[in-house]
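Data availability (excerpt). The following record was deposited with the supplementary files.
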Amino acid sequence: MDGPSQFPAVGSQQRAAAAPRTRGGWTRKMLLKPGRSLMDWIRLIKSGKDMTGLKGKLLRVTPEELAKHKEKTDCWICIRGMVYNVTPYLEYHPGGEDELMRGAGADATELFDQIHSWVNYDSILKECLVGRMTSKPFPVAKASVTQPRLMVPKWTLPNVPVTQPGLTVPKEIIPNGLAVPGGSQKQPQDISPRYEWFQTEDTITVVIYTKQKDINSDSVIVDLEGDVLRTEVRQQEYSYILQLELSNKVQEGVSVLCSSKVGKIELHLKKLNNTVWSDLGQPGEDNDSYKKNTNGDVEVVRPYTPVLPSLCPESVDEDQTCTNIYLMVKINPDGLLTPIIDKLQIGDSIYMSSPEGNFFCTQLEGITELILMAAGTGFTPMVKLIIFALKILNFRKIRLVVINKEEKDILWKDQLDKLASTDQRFEVDYILSQPHAEWAGRMGRIEMSLCAELLSQRTEGVKSLVCVCGPASFTEIVVGFYKELGVSDEEICTFSP
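Predicted structure:
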């Protein structure tokens, strides 16, 4: 297990349009056009340009009419009964044109909720509104995203000296098409994943399509050693291996994002130099192959952000925090590491690295107000930040906004409410994208008006800092909102959950 770590936020995931597939399992992509960032889109919709082609007229759209608009040159989608002409937005979509086209001419509500539940689509697409559906349109298949991405360092650690049933280490390479245990035959076209890649000015994204619908981040082992990227995707009795010697230098750290119900894995890397890559790299010896899983130990590295045992100062034992490390970990029964963590007993051992991170307490010098924006497990780096800031006597205010899908997903809600009631310097607000009927708090998604509201509450003449943590697209949107509102880069800090 990796030690405490806070990594820089991953950059934009904007991708180039798809290109024909080539040998080696990946495709060559063109760099995304300049001037297609979120802020460029905001400037465009504020320019007064007619984004729908209807000159302000709103229509009542039938399912049959919606289905006619499913081309890149004429693309309408429906979200919650409202129809949007997203044709002009395709080039600006952070996930790429092809991802947005999955909802073309149909009801994309479920697809949207599973991937971008925190995003305020109405704010982004309000100038693209065509009208309202007359009846429920045909839906598209939805895709479910698992836990937010995990950061994996380039080095590995010694084997964890705790053996649990079910942990395996791959040994032999299994060529495509060989028999598997039980006498069943697996043909390459049935089991063989494929991969492709995309690039922006400063990022590289490798996408693996596993064809395994229940894939999750704990099934993925990534190792970046020098210029060699090796990824192992564990699939029941076999592991798929992707091994590449990258054509150019990248920074340390790989961000992993899994879409479980579509079987897609995204690996996000940051370029060392902002140059255009003509190809991804050369395949290694084990590239695009299978290894049989056998009983034994497997080396797994996972970074976690250490927290404190409680948000309440009276519950924190200073001696305990000096000798103990507290982690907030979601146990995945099918994962490689978290089931072991769950079963650890007193006396068991586990290896940890030294801490790494990009945030230092000195960054709070002179700061007397904090605005904290956290989506899901993005709350974890905020824990120590909140407690540290409240120990500063002249600290004026901390405003925390926590964004989740359902109320049960809110971490430490009771403690947050207690802290807000006992310390007037701390305020917390919750936003749910899928609340139950009795929920009385905020509903919906993050939007610029909320960011503006938080900024307006700042005390005039004092220094403040905006801290953001969550999935990459959440971070990009929130940072974009604050920059549009005039907040400088020096006043914004981003983390990765």
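Summary of structural features: Confidence is low (pLDDT under 50) at residues 1-31, 141-190.
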